[in-house]
Write a structure and sequence with these properties.
This protein is α/β, with parallel strands linked by helices and about 475 residues long. Strands 6, 7, 8, 11, 12, 19 and 20 form a 7-stranded mixed sheet that branches. A 6-stranded parallel sheet has the order 15-14-13-16-17-18, sandwiched between helices. Strands 4-5-9-10 form a 4-stranded antiparallel sheet, with no helix packed on it.
Amino acid sequence: MAWSPLKLWDEQTPQRKRRTECGSRDMNKVRRDLGGKKTWAYIQLLWYWLWFLFTCFFLSSFPCTQEMSRNFACRNVRICLGVVTFPVQVPFPFPLLFLQVIKCKAAVLWEANKPFSIEEVEVAPPKAHEVRIKILATGICRSDDHVVTGGLVMPFPIILGHEAAGVVESVGEGVTSLKPGDKVIPLFIPQCGECSACLSSKGNMCIKNDIGSAAGLMADGTSRFTCKGKPIHHFIGTSTFTEYTVVHDTAAVKIDSAAPPEKICLIGCGFSTGYGAALQTAKVEAGSTCAVFGLGGVGLSVIMGCKAAGASRIIAVDINSDKFAKAKELGATDCINPKDYKEPIHKVLIGMTGYGVDYSFEVIGRIETMVAALASCHYNYGVSVIVGVPPAAQNITFDPMLLFSGRTWKGSVFGGWKSKDSVPKLVADYMKKKFVLDPLITHTLPFSKINEGFDLLRAGKSIRSVLTF
């Protein structure tokens, strides 16, 4: 076969190889006319160099084709110059039009109160302003279990999961903030940067968020997941219990590429939700007294936030005394179990503090403890924050005098953080060792053991279980 200065090392079919060989023989006369194989080599190199310049510079100068040129595929190529051979990548015109459906494993919940089923699903390519992400690690959150048990009503079948870290596999048309290869955290609270909520300094609930939506679909009203010929619903715009997922580009943010995914995935929900509830929502002051109801991963993160804010007394409340050692390790000064007292827990806390705590946090999601947390606050200026996801279709009843006297009752979603602005900073703080995540992770399991992870959660034997792929 005639020598060529450029050899493509893609896997070739026999038919393609025969075409290459025939093409080489047919060009022998042209090569002789051009002065031999050395001149022909220079011509070929010049051609590929010009094509490279055209793709990278000329096409990218036009707004209408910039996305296509930026997302062209690259072929592995080996350049031969004399006896020296070295690999390079040369762009070839395979634009977004040719992105393929990916088949992968996902944990599908077909109906409530049933185990997850590991299925092969089809994940469609990202559409305009969407990103397809390869999930590297995902945490099991109590909010996911609320869907399983029916406490949070969502359509079935569905792929749950919302606390994860991954790598961008491909992007849709119009995506400029992310590119393939970026390490990212999916965001169940997006940040479009344009709506009234994003532009306000008072909150973080982007109007484009999908929390509480009964649709379970992407913005165009369709799903990117298919299993056994049936569309599978998305969960709060993330759906991370799968090897690949598709999210809107406002619902993912680039993070430090060196950050360990099996650790920083907790910043996607649990840690940020609790830590921010203390620092962002309640704005705990130095020297204050705090009470935290519920010592799961989020509750322990609240304790970490209170400690970081300089609280002088942090009272941890839980009916599982086995969690007290971890709570004290992370900053709790007192730990109490309501089962050890005959009187209501809010009276116990008032008795411990005089007139009630400065700040209380309900991190369970139970109506009764929400009222108890409010009643445990200082009657005149106490602040109580609801952090746990409330049960669906339930009303709360309380004495309005609890608020009339001066207490403040607040809610907190994702710790009050503006997601795209704050998540990269939180990851950077973790990398600088400003806080720890390891104590929150009690189990690291392969993705196939997702049901075991939920069993540990329900039995109170885990704080955070992380699934790896």
